[in-house]
Specification:
Oligomer: single chain
Distance between the termini: 22 Å
Strand content: 15-25%
Structural class: alpha/beta
Length: 438
C-alpha cells in the first residue's frame, strides 16, 4: 500500500512539538501512562460482568466506551432508572477503568416509530430534533451529568450521519449537540466531552462541527475511521482533518480541539476477512493513531455480538460470543504489554513506503522497543548489517543517518510482515527480534 509522502510530511509538521504543549483536558484525563494510556475498547454487555472487565484491564485497556441509552433509563415519562449504569460504573472503577458514556438515541416515549426500520432506539424511532422530545433528551442529559459528575467522560450521540433524522439532518445535529454540550457543562464543567462520533471523514460535516463550536465546549472531535481495507491510509485522513481543525481554530483565535478515534475495528469474517487479518489490522491501527498524534483509540468491540461466526457485523469482537480469545487478543496483549509506559518517539526510516518501523521509549530517554510490519503481502527483510535512523534525521538523499541522529544497528536480519513484530534495542542501538510475531 502506498502512503502519500506529502500527507506524511503534513502529518509530521502538524504533530511537531506536540509534547511541548500544555496537556489538554483529554490528555489530562488519560494520564501519563504512555501510548497505552489512550487505549480503550467498546463494550455492549450489562453490569455484573466483572471478570470481563478484569480481562479488559489486564490486556492493557484503560478506557471503556459504552452506551447510556435514554430509552433504557427513562422507561416511564419523568421516571429514571439509573441502576444498570450505576452498577456498571462501579464495576469499571473497581477495575481501574475510565468510563466514556455515549448519550445516545431516541426514546419511544417521545418519538414516532419510523416505518421499515429495525425496532431499536438508534434506528427505529425519530431523532429528538425539536419540541417535547428535544426538551426531554436535554433533561436526561442534565440528570446524567449531575449524577455522574467528575466520574465519566461524555460523547454526544453516536454516528449521527447514520441515524440523526430521517432523512439524516447533520446540520440539525450540530445545533442539537451544541445544546447538549452546554447542558453538560452546567452540571459538570470539568468533564471531557466528545463529538460528533462521525462514521468516517465526512469533511464538510466535521469542519462545520468545529466551526460552530465557538465557545470551545467540545474537548475533541471524535471520528470512527472504518474502512474495508488496510488501516495505513488513515494517516492521510488524520493529517487532512488536523490541518482543517487547526485552520478553523486559528481563524477564530482559539486553541484547536483534540482529535480522537472513538470507535474503530475490523471483523474477523466475511469475504477476505479472517481472524488473522483482524489481528494484524487491529494490532496496527492504534499504533498508526499514535503516529498521527491521536491520543485516544477505542477499539470495536470487546466481544462478538452474536453466536453466528459467519455474520460479519457481529464478528468485530476481541473475544468470541462465548468469551474465548481470538488471535487479535494475543496480538494486543503482546504489543500493549511491550509498550506499557513508553512514549512514541518516531518512525525509523527504511526507505520503503510499505515498511513501518516505529520507535518507543521512556519520556526523554532512548528508544528501547521498535514495532514493525510491512503492508505488502510478501513481506520484506531488512538485511544485516545495516544502520537505520529516525525519520527526519537521515541524510537528504541517501539511505544513511546524520552523524548526530538517533541510530539503530541491524545486528541480525529483521523480517517484517503483516503482523506487528517487536524488536528490542540494545544499549549499543542493536536491534533483535523480541519474541514471536504472533
Amino acid at each position: 500500500m502506498r502512503i502519500d509522502r506529502l500527507a506524511m510530511a503534513l502529518l509530521l509538521a502538524s504533530t511537531a512539538g506536540t509534547h511541548a504543549q500544555p496537556a489538554s483536558r483529554v490528555q489530562a484525563w488519560l494520564g501519563e501512562g504512555g501510548v497505552t494510556a489512550g487505549l480503550g475498547v467498546n463494550v455492549h454487555f450489562p453490569p455484573g460482568r466483572p471478570r470481563d472487565l478484569q480481562r479488559i484491564r489486564q490486556l492493557g485497556f484503560q478506557v471503556v466506551r459504552t452506551d447510556l441509552l435514554w430509552a433504557q433509563v427513562e422507561t416511564t415519562r419523568g421516571h429514571y432508572d439509573w441502576a444498570a449504569a450505576d452498577a456498571l460504573l462501579l464495576d469499571l472503577e473497581a477495575n481501574g477503568l475510565q468510563a466514556l458514556f455515549i448519550l445516545a438515541y431516541s426514546n419511544p416515549l417521545y418519538a414516532e416509530r419510523v416505518a421499515n426500520r429495525p425496532d431499536s432506539p438508534s434506528l427505529g424511532y425519530a431523532a429528538p430534533l425539536r419540541g417535547e422530545a428535544r426538551a426531554a433528551f436535554m433533561a436526561f442529559v442534565r440528570l446524567a451529568s449531575a449524577r455522574y459528575q467528575g466520574r465519566v467522560a461524555w460523547e454526544v450521540w453516536n454516528e449521527p450521519d447514520h441515524n440523526f433524522g430521517m432523512p439524516v439532518d447533520l446540520r440539525a445535529y450540530i445545533g442539537f449537540a451544541a445544546e447538549a454540550c452546554e447542558v453538560l457543562r452546567v452540571q459538570d464543567a470539568g468533564a471531557v466531552v466528545l463529538g460528533p462520533a462521525a462514521s468516517g471523514f465526512l469533511r464538510w460535516f466535521l469542519e462545520d462541527f468545529v466551526e460552530a463550536d465557538r465557545t470551545e465546549c467540545f474537548d475533541a472531535v471524535s471520528v470512527h475511521p472504518y474502512r474495508d481495507r488496510a488501516p495505513e491510509d488513515v494517516l492521510e485522513d488524520w493529517a487532512r482533518l488536523r490541518g482543517a481543525v487547526q485552520r478553523i481554530a486559528q481563524a477564530q483565535g482559539r486553541t484547536p480541539p483534540d482529535i480522537v478515534n472513538s470507535e474503530w475495528g475490523y471483523s474477523s469474517t466475511g469475504g477476505a476477512w479472517t481472524r488473522q487479518r483482524q489481528a494484524d489490522y487491529v494490532g496496527r491501527l492504534w499504533l498508526l493513531d499514535r503516529m498521527a498524534g491521536i491520543p485516544l483509540t477505542i477499539i470495536y468491540d470487546w466481544w462478538d455480538d452474536g453466536p453466528d461466526a459467519s455474520q460479519k457485523e457481529a464478528s468485530f469482537g476481541i473475544v468470541d460470543h462465548w468469551g474465548q480469545p481470538k488471535p487479535v487478543h494475543a496480538t494486543l496483549t503482546r504489543v500493549a504489554g511491550a509498550l506499557r509506559g513508553l512514549e512514541y518517539q518516531g518512525r525509523v526510516e527504511t526507505f520503503r513506503a510499505s515498511e513501518f518501523l516505529l520507535a518507543f521509549g521512556v519520556a526523554e530517554g532512548p528508544a528501547s522497543i521498535l514495532v514493525g510490519w510491512n503492508t505488502e503481502a510478501q513481506g520484506s527483510m531488512i538485511v544485516a548489517p545495516r544502520r537505520l535512523c529516525l525519520a527526519g534525521q537521515s541524510a537528504p538523499s541517501a539511505p544513511a543517518c546524520a552523524p548526530d541522529g538517533t541510530q539503530f544497528v541491524v545486528a541480525e536480519s529483521l523480517r517484517l510482515d503483516a503482523a506487528p513484530r517487536i524488536f528490542s534495542v540494545g544499549g549499543d542501538g542493536s536491534l533483535r527480534p523480541a519474541g514471536p510475531a504472533r
